[in-house]
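Inputs:
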Amino acid sequence: MSSKSVNIIKNIVREHTEWRGSCINLIASENVVSNAVREMLISDLGNRYAIGFLHNRFYSGTRYVDELEGVTTDLAKRVFQAEHVNYVPISGTMANLVLFNALTAPGDVVTALSVIDGGHASFRECSKIHGVSLVPLPFSMENMNIDIDEAEKVIVRVKPKLILLGASEILFPHPVREIRTIADEVGAIVAYDSAHVLGLIAGGKFQDPLREGAEVVTGSTHKTFFGPQGGIILCKNRYAKDIDNAAWQLVNNHHVHRVAGLSIALAEFEAFGSNYADQVVKNAQRLAEELYSRGLDVLGSDMGFTKSHQVLFKGTNNNGDATAKRLEDANIITTKTPLAYDKTEEECSGVRLGTQEITRVGMVEEDMIRIAELIKRVVIDREDPSMVREYVKELTNGYREVKFSFESGDQAYKYVNL
Ligand SMILES: Cc1ncc(COP(=O)(O)O)c(C=O)c1O
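Outputs:
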């Protein structure tokens, strides 16, 4: 009976892997990892604890973990050009929670974008958990960005302890320099949530929050940064102790196999990250142009559509949910998303695309033309999605290998039998 269950489970995961390998994967928050990273994820480290600080652990048995984390820290500081790094949080959400715990106290005020304007639910949830009040940063649909003049009024009025920039829907760099100047008027800390754009920042192709005035950067290690799923915090040395202490208290078990995988991804990024990030942005810009020229209502048309990995468009009849479902029926995987003029965050009139995973498997600008045409056939021409699916499969057949890594031939969508 139990071995039958094992087979059922393995088959489900095998089918999932094969299916996603035959899809055009445009979720803006996912990516694929190299075999070297995968090898770390199935290593014995996944069975171990390493509570505590480097060379000062609570449990015995961590001599190699200390060696590994010494290497990881050096690599991360170089790749992100950060004074201090902490990769203890096991997700971007957890990284934000650590930030709130370390640098705010109950009763403080935090300002950040609301979900409807592109902010992440963790901004709200971390505020609730930590007893701080969250005041939304004003957003301008016209610029698809934080409204600096209105933000200044809010910041001067509410005097936040922390101003958190960054977003889940982020087409253009946030005004970190301008917000830094305003923050100095009221003595606020400026932090930047780079969950989506960490890889573009590390590749030098988006913005550079730490040099522009942010003191702390939180992020996910698996979206545009192509590491295993996890969280990270970069900060100035003056916040290192508070961040490290909060991280250990909150996370406790930080999943050391993930750290080993992150370490490999950092080495890959150091070698290939700049070219990869460049191609991600070029692909996003080309995809947006091609969709727009085929009649899709792509946002940001008068500003060059995007400077990140993301493309946003309005769903058919302003229904992002139905549009994303039709696309999924054609094996084109996207995300419904709220847009700033929606009345509630559940309304989700838009669809969000990301080009980082298709870039990691080797797609370039010409492929964006083919993808845009397939999306148009489903969304504009209203072709039967199951008919389009065959063309999607044909396209993805040529893109199954992980690029921007040291070994060639790594299969991105292979179920591994041990
Ligand atoms: C801006 C932002 N912050 C935090 C997160 C949470 O990251 P994770 O999914 O790694 O918890 C996300 C997720 O998409 C995000 O968009």
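Remarks. The CA atoms of residues 401 and 412 lie 5 Å apart. Residues 29, 91-93, 96, 120, 122, 166-168, 193, 195-196, 220, 231 surround pyridoxal-5'-phosphate (CB under 6 Å).
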